[in-house]
């Protein structure tokens, strides 16, 4: 069971400025003007707004990331998709410029020219090709811009975490400010989220103790829950393995992209260990609900420090462990 914590009701909290101040919650306007605009240079946005550019940067700095099987950048090549996937047991297709989990197609099995999604549904090759065509047309990209389709290897969730997610790979979101990990949560797929670890689509957010990687609270649709709705597993027992490795990887992402206020999405693959999924220059605020805690007090502590960006990764993590655990 989780410890008894006051439930933050977003329908009342986020409407009242005084309540937001007293609870230390970071609002969208504050996030945009005081942190994103101030600490994230616009010239750096293309690095994280394009997943292909992010992957290229991660590979340049030897950060672990899912293998890239291929890139399709024109409608003619969409008809040649089977060249990339014909001998693969599973794979993931995603738009390079997508956001919020939109347009990501995860295939967990292939059989006689048919492809099985994580929810068990089967698709013909023509349906997968149409999905790629929609990606290229910008159906899932920011602002409807034309896009490219990335085909990646299918991740295998860490055995220690597999039971906590349903029809999908659990991922970890870490907010990193000026190189210091500030707050973290795990996102768990479920039936309601259609196998995707996206909170806006109904996935579960589990707040994590920044020092230990252990669950401290869990929410779905901004309401506290104790068990996974599909598997019934007790979420308070969740303990993320290799936690300090994940924190080090999150800190490294700040160093390679230069963004001061950053969302880092990580996974633990059973074969490769901690790996980078993507980076976000405008990370959402639901992580506060998942943690039953506001970001502002933590961000202000870091703002009071002189040039923490120059600290070693070990020193950044030591600071987070000392000041943001509970």
Keywords:
D-amino Acid Aminotransferase, Chain A, domain 1; 2 domains; single chain; 13 strands; six-stranded antiparallel beta sheet; alpha+beta; 326 residues
Uncertain stretches of 5 or more adjacent residues: 4-8
Quickly name the level 1 CATH class of the largest domain. Alpha Beta
The strand line-up of the biggest sheet is 11-10-9-8-7-12-13
Q: Which band does the percent of strand residues land in?
A: 15-25%
Distance between the termini: 16 Å
Question: Quick one: biggest sheet?
Answer: 7 strands, antiparallel
Strand runs, count: 13
What is the domain total for the residues? 2
CATH architecture assignment name of the largest domain: 2-Layer Sandwich
Per DSSP, the total helix count is 12
**CATH homologous superfamily descriptor of the largest domain:** ATP-grasp fold, B domain
Computed Rg: 19 Å
CATH topology of the largest domain: D-amino Acid Aminotransferase, Chain A, domain 1
Going by helix content, strand content and strand pairing, the class is alpha+beta
Mean pLDDT: 91
Shape, principal axes of CA atoms: globular
Fraction of residues in H or I helices: 25-40%
H/E topology pattern: HHHHHEHHEEEEHEEEEEEHEEHHH
């Amino acid at each position: 069971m989780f410890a008894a914590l006051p439930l933050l009701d977003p329908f009342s909290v986020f409407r009242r400025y005084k309540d937001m101040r007293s609870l230390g919650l970071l609002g969208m306007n504050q996030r945009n003007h005081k942190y994103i605009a101030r600490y994230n240079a616009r010239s750096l946005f293309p690095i994280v707004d394009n997943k292909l550019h992010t992957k290229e940067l991660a590979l340049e700095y030897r950060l672990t990331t899912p293998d890239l099987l291929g890139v399709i950048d024109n409608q003619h090549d969409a008809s040649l998709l089977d060249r990339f996937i014909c001998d693969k047991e599973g794979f993931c297709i995603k738009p390079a410029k997508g956001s919020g989990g939109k347009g990501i197609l995860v295939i967990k099995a292939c059989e006689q020219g048919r492809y099985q999604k994580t929810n068990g549904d089967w698709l013909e090759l023509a349906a997968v090709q149409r999905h790629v065509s929609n990606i290229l047309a910008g159906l899932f990209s920011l602002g409807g811009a034309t896009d490219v389709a990335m085909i990646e290897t299918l991740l295998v969730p860490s055995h220690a975490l597999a039971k906590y997610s349903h029809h999908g790979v659990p991922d970890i979101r870490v907010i990193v400010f000026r190189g210091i990990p500030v707050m973290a949560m795990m996102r768990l797929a479920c039936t309601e989220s259609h196998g995707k670890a996206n909170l806006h689509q109904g996935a579960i957010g589990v707040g994590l103790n920044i020092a230990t990687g252990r669950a401290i609270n869990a929410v779905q649709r901004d309401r506290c829950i104790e068990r996974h709705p599909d598997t019934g597993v007790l979420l308070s027992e969740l303990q993320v393995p290799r936690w300090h490795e994940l924190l080090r990887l999150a800190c490294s992402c700040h160093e390679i992209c230069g963004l001061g206020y950053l969302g880092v999405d990580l996974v633990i693959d059973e074969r490769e260990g901690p790996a980078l999924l993507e980076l976000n220059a405008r990370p959402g605020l639901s992580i506060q609900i998942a943690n039953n805690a506001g970001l502002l007090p933590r961000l202000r502590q870091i703002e009071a420090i002189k040039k923490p960006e120059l600290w070693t990764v070990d020193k950044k993590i030591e600071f987070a462990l000392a000041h943001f655990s509970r």
